[in-house]
Specification:
Elements (H helix, E strand, L loop, with lengths): L4 E3 L5 E3 L3 E2 L8 H11 L3 E3 L7 H14 L8 E6 L6 H15 L6 E4 L36 H14 L5 E4 L3 H10 L6 E5 L7 H9 L3 E5 L23 H10 L3 H11 L3 E2 L6 H8 L8 H8 L10 H9 L8
Parallel strand pairs: 3-4, 4-5, 5-6, 6-7, 7-8, 8-9, 9-10
Antiparallel strand pairs: 1-2
Helix pairs in contact: 1-2, 1-9, 2-3, 3-4, 7-8
């Protein structure tokens, strides 16, 4: 698998296909992680907010105990949640993820959103999710004023302390990313953003490449994770798009394999989520074929600028708080 990893600015090798763990049920997570390691996955994308890090950690521990991978073979990412942006809470949040994942360090720790919310103690609620007080008469998010630079400084301290090998960002527009680079003593190694054929973000991908920042593509298959949440319509499925299905037919591959291969060939790192052992094997088979330049251009042309994961939309609908970050 000649393109199974890319080289980061620090010389580290970043596996170019990961398993996203968002929405994997707790009771399924240990087995899914073990199956993934057996299938050849070495990159696991986690987060406090997913609510299943302890279960993912159980799967990682079992996989490491039983082989075939060692800890050095694996890449594990986690993310700082919105309620821990105050610098005094950053280390404790990271240490909680490490404890749950049963690890002594993370390969990458990301700031999940450029959204600072009021702190919720671990013993009160973990993960704290979005509402400050779910039992309030009118529950809502509770934004607080914490400069992103302060949070980033605390993230840098985690790397200096050896708790994490690298730090990075998620869900930033180019202007905010440029601002981070203006003061960062340790530059972001990775930027994780929503990317799929209906949201290609070519300028952001290009800017990150020019700044030697790797790009992770979350929701690389598009709408599927959002349809059950009423955040997307069934008619917005990338995997049903005639261009994608025609290319898949031409190669004898599935639409999901084609979309993931497109993400890989444009230099990004997709992290699809699946609970199916068959889909795990199917997804990792994207190294076995390649798309032509013409096919890549066809998929590039599907861009609708359709963002499914937007706090300006879901924040108001689900959490009674209007919080735009991309405008």
């Amino acid at each position: 698998m000649s393109d199974s990893s890319l080289t980061l600015a620090d010389g580290g090798r970043f596996p170019t296909l990961g398993l996203g763990t968002w929405k994997i049920p707790k009771d399924r997570a240990p087995g899914v992680i073990e199956d993934a390691v057996k299938a050849g996955y070495r990159h696991f994308d986690c987060a406090c907010d997913y609510g299943n890090e302890a279960d993912v950690g159980a799967g990682l521990a079992a996989a490491l105990a039983n082989g075939p991978a060692t800890r050095d073979d694996l890449w594990v990412t986690s993310k700082l949640w919105n309620t821990y942006h105050e610098p005094r809470h950053v280390r404790a949040a990271c240490e909680r993820s490490l404890k749950d994942l049963q690890l002594d360090h993370l390969d990458l720790y990301l700031v999940h959103f450029p959204i600072a919310l009021a702190f919720v103690p671990f013993e009160e609620r973990y993960p704290p999710e979005w509402f400050h007080d779910p039992d309030a008469a009118n529950p809502a998010m509770k934004p607080i004023k914490v400069p992103y630079a302060d949070t980033w400084g605390a993230m840098e301290e985690l790397q200096r302390a050896g708790l994490v090998k690298r730090i990075g960002v998620c869900n930033l527009n180019i202007s905010l990313l440029r601002d981070v680079l203006s003061y960062a003593q340790i530059r972001p190694a990775v930027h994780q953003v929503e990317l799929h054929p209906y949201l290609t973000q070519p300028r952001l991908v290009r800017y990150c490449k020019e700044e030697a920042i790797a790009v992770t593509a979350f929701s690389p298959l598009g709408a599927d994770s959002y349809i059950p949440l009423d955040m997307a319509g069934a008619d917005e499925r990338v995997l049903d798009d005639p261009v994608v299905t025609a290319i898949a037919s031409a190669h004898g591959k599935t639409p999901a394999q084609v979309v993931l291969r497109w993400a890989l060939q444009r230099g990004t790192v997709p992290i699809p989520k699946t609970q199916s052992a068959d889909h795990l094997r199917e997804n990792i088979a994207i190294y076995e074929f390649a798309l032509t330049d013409a096919e890549m251009a066809q998929i590039d042309g599907l861009d609708r600028h359709r963002r499914f994961n937007d706090p300006a939309d879901f924040g108001e609908k689900a959490f009674h708080t209007f919080y735009p970050i991309f405008d």
